[in-house]
Structures are given as structure tokens and as C-alpha cells.
């Protein structure tokens, strides 16, 4: 059973051993991530110089479900744009938030702007 959605920033905090990593590690066995955010994490690792195959392996070793970004989720994420655009919420952010809303579970993030959003989803700042 899924109990939390992980934002890209939360996964990166664990991978880079940043503050908040312990909260992510504890949540992972019952957490999921959007395929869009999964791609963001891979891209950031490669940007930081990690070879693509090693980046993929690092994420495969982590325990969490990757949830597909299908047409319906794309539509719902786009609908969030109207409510979040003044806060600088990206497409990846909206997929993450939409998934948490859909599943009715908290979202773990480092992004403090999310705490100010009124979307009917619990935002847990990991640091």
C-alpha cells in the first residue's frame, strides 16, 4: 500500500546524503514516485557527472514504486497549472502533486513553496 509520494528533490536528498535523507529512507518502502519525477532524478544525476547506467542502477536499488505518467494523469497535472502557476510550480512538480492528490497520501519534498499551496494534499517538508 502506498503511503507517500516522493518528489525529485526528496530522492536527490537521499542520494546526495543531504539533510532530510533519513526521512526519505524511512518512507521509501511504502512510497512511490511519478515516472516524470523519476526521469528528473536520472537527468540530475547525469548532469552531476554520474554515467547514465550508474544513475539508473542507483535508482533501481532504491525501494519505491514508479507510477506511469499516462494520459489521464497528464490532464490532471495540466489542470493544476491554473492553480499553481503563480508559485513557479513546474510540470514535474505538478505530476508529483497530482499523484499525491490522486492517491490521497502526503508528498515528501524539500520545496518550501509547496507548503503554501492549497491543493488538498499534505506536504511534508523533509528539511
Description of the molecule:
The chain is of the alpha/beta class and 127 residues long. The protein has a single domain (4-125), classed as 5'-nuclease (Rossmann fold, 3-Layer(aba) Sandwich), CATH 3.40.50. Helices cover 51% and strands 13% of the residues. It has 6 helices and 5 strands; from the N terminus they run βααβααβααββ. A 5-stranded parallel β-sheet has the order 3-2-1-4-5. Helix 1 crosses helix 2 and helix 5 packs across helix 6. The radius of gyration is 14 Å and the shape is globular. The two termini are 25 Å apart. The mean pLDDT is 96.
What name goes with the CATH superfamily?
Answer: 5'-nuclease
Could you say what the CATH topology is called?
A: Rossmann fold
- Alpha-carbon distance between the two ends: 25 Å
Q: What percent strand?
A: 5-15%
* Largest sheet, spatial ordering of strands: 3-2-1-4-5
Total number of distinct structural domains: 1
Structural class: alpha/beta
Residue windows where pLDDT falls under 50 for at least 5 positions: none
Quickly name the level 1 CATH class: Alpha Beta
Which range best describes the helical content: under 10%, 10-25%, 25-40%, 40-55%, 55-70% or over 70%?
A: 40-55%
Radius of gyration: 14 Å
H and E string: EHHEHHEHHEE
Query: What is the mean predicted local confidence, pLDDT?
Result: 96
Largest sheet descriptor: 5 strands, parallel
Shape: globular
The number of helical elements comes to: 6
In short:
By secondary structure, this protein is of the alpha/beta class. It has a single domain (4-125), classed as Rossmann fold (3-Layer(aba) Sandwich), CATH 3.40.50.
